[in-house]
Structures are given as C-alpha cells and as structure tokens.
Amino acid sequence: MTVPDPVPGNDPFRRHAAEGVLLLGGGAAILLQLADPRVARGVARHSDFAGRPLDRLFGTLDYVYAVGFGDEAVRRAAVRRVNARHAPVRGDAADSADGEADEAGDARSARYSAFDADAQRWVASTLLATALAVEERLWGPLDEREADAIVRGYAPLGGSLQAGREGWPASRAEFEAWWQARLAALDVGDDARGVARILLGGSAALPPGTRLLLPLVRLSTAALLPAPIRAAYGFRWTPRAERVSAAWLRGIAIVWPLLPRVVRHAPMRGSLRRARLRNRYAEREA
Questions:
Q1: Calpha distance 58→268 (Å, rounded)
Q2: pLDDT at residue 48, as a whole number
Q3: What are the CA-CA distances from residue 217 to residues 27, 77, 211, 229 (Å)?
C-alpha cells in the first residue's frame, strides 16, 4: 500500500515541522518545560531520567509526529498512549523528593498533574517557541503569514489531550505576547536543575557514542534558551560560546538545504513507521 506524502507543499506547518533540523531545539524545549515547577515535579518523581534519559525526548517526538502527520488511527493511538502514561503522574503540594512536606507558599511545591490543561498548553508552547527559534536562527525571520500558520498548526498538540484548543493563540504576535508573560513567571528549581544535569551531563545510560555529541548538544541548548532561563540553569555564556554557537548554526544553515528530503525528513518518517507498526501489533493482539 502506498502511504500518501505527509508533507504537502501548500501546508506551512507541515513543511516546517517535518524538518529534522528542528531537533536541535529538543534540549532547550525540555529545559523550558521543566522551568514550570509543575512539570519539573512530575518529571522528577515519575520519569526514570537516570536510567532512560532520552525517553521524554523520543516520546514527545513520536507524539508530535503522530498528531501532526499521522492518519486518524495513528493520531488516536498516540493520544491513548500519552494519556495512559500521564494517568499516574500526579501529586500533592506536600509531595517532595525525600517524602517531607514542603513549606506552604513555595512555588516549587505546587500541586501537579499531567492532566493539567495549562501545563499541557505550556509544554506545547515550548515546542513551538524552540522550533521557531531554530528556524529563524538558521534562516532569518519568517514571513508573518507563514509564522501565523505555524502557530495555529501547533494547536492540536495540547488540544488533542486535556488542554483543548480554546485559548491557543491564532497568530505569531498573540503567541509572542503570551510567551513573554509566561517566561517572566518561570521558576527554575532544584527538580529542573537535577533533571537537566542528567540529560546534559553524560549519563552512563546514554546510547554508545551519544556522549561524544553532548558538547554540541549543550552548546545548541544554551544558545536557544532565553538568557534568564539559561542563567537560571547555570550555563556559562561567554562571548566565545556565542561565537562558536553562531558559527555552528551558520554551518548547519548552509548544509541542511543541500541534503535530500529523505534525509531531512528521516526522523518524522521513522516515527510514523514505528507508530503504524505499533498499531498493527495492537490490532493483532486485540
């Protein structure tokens, strides 16, 4: 059976989101998500980051590609999987890592639930913001109409879960105003910094060879984070780091468009293949 091309040329969101180069923003997106204490607390207490540090990244990618590019069966199955993983992720304000109650009023002691609609909307917004940052750092400002279409294209990421589509920005300008207000209210706490150390610190659980790429991953992550968040995570951002990151991104900007589409879209196509295989196995076992 021939699978239809999931990237029609007249869809700005799909043209944008299919490019594997957006994965450069994966680390920055995760750290931005963790800068919301509700997300950080849920991840720190319910994810095995120490043993499987890339699970959140690949799980998020599979969900994004399924919702953005999959057929109805693939989308429904992806939503079911995410909801099943989210079901046990909840806790009270007094639920701390060592089992002791946190002091009342501490922002880091906020009650958390993976079904929190606002937290889901925040996670989706970090994916959009970092994807826009990657594209514009590489190739310059997007056309306003194209940027508006991309913003609207990210709405189903939270909207397919509990967040719903109501309240999602309809334009780039509306998104930027909302985004800047949210950035100002973030609080990078110990949970977030602890997960970041595991993710970017060369965990022994990383696949062989992956740790060789960590210096570039850390550099790209720091370059794409807003300056206050970068500082809160403890990145040392020097003029030399700025120059090296700018040179690295310039090189990618030159080389990436020269690659064949089958290479540029490989992460998206691989993710959709895995999703279809999972669905076939599930149907056989049903």
A1: 11
A2: 72
A3: 7, 31, 9, 17
How far is Cα 12 from Cα 15, in angstroms, rounded to an integer? 5
Report the candidate in 155, 223, 231, 224 with the shortest Cα–Cα distance to residue 186.
231
Judge whether 115 and 162 are in contact, CB under 8 Å. Answer: yes
CA 157 from centre of chain: 11
Q: Which residues of the chain have pLDDT under 70?
A: 1-10, 49-51, 53, 93-110, 202-207, 209, 281-286
CA R_g for the chain = 19
pTM for the predicted model, two decimal places: 0.88
- Cβ pair 256, 21 in contact under 8 A: yes
End-to-end CA distance of the chain: 23
Report the pLDDT value the prediction gives residue 44, as an integer from 0 to 100: 80
The pair phi, psi for residue 31, each rounded to 5°, is: -65, -35
Rounded Cα distance, 27 and 122, in Å:
16
Q: Which residues contact 221 (CB under 8 A, 6 or more apart)?
A: 27, 28, 31, 200
The per-residue pLDDT for range 2-22, each reduced to its tens digit, is 445 566 556 899 999 999 999
